[in-house]
Design brief:
- It is a single chain.
- The chain has about 160 residues and is α+β, with helices and mostly antiparallel strands.
- The chain has a 5-stranded mixed β-sheet with strand order 1-2-3-4-5, with helices on both faces.
- A hairpin with a 2-residue loop joins strand 2 and strand 3.
Length: about 160
Amino acid sequence: MKITMVKIFDIPYDEVEIIKDLWEKNRQYHENTSEYFKESYRSINFEQRIKAFSVFSKDTIKITVARSGDEYVGYCISTAVDGKGELESMHVDAAKRGSGIGTKLAAGHVNWMKEKGCKVIGVTVSQENESTINFYRKLGFYPNTLYMQQRGIIE
């Protein structure tokens, strides 16, 4: 059995297209598992979501990827602005979960935000996504508020 090393490294925003397939898997996961917001997840597209990050300078955004051989198996995007850090988006391919990739990605980003002077570090997680909530709990994140939302009205 061949064991492939996983390389974890940062990329600049202009190379973010390399995470598109992983991002789409993340979107599909949320669409498939959401009880109340399937339509919301279905309507999100990569280009629009990633364009929102274009306003951040290279000093306020961190994009990290995990690669195993020729395949990208995980990513994490975080921002750090005015003392507030946010884990914006993260995904590890289902076949690689439990191998520590997600922990390394998230911990690296939390450390980066602390180095940037962030006094508040947060992450938004769907309340329906219990496995991810438990993952972040292990990293020291706890619920603070619960934002509730009505489902979109479909005409």
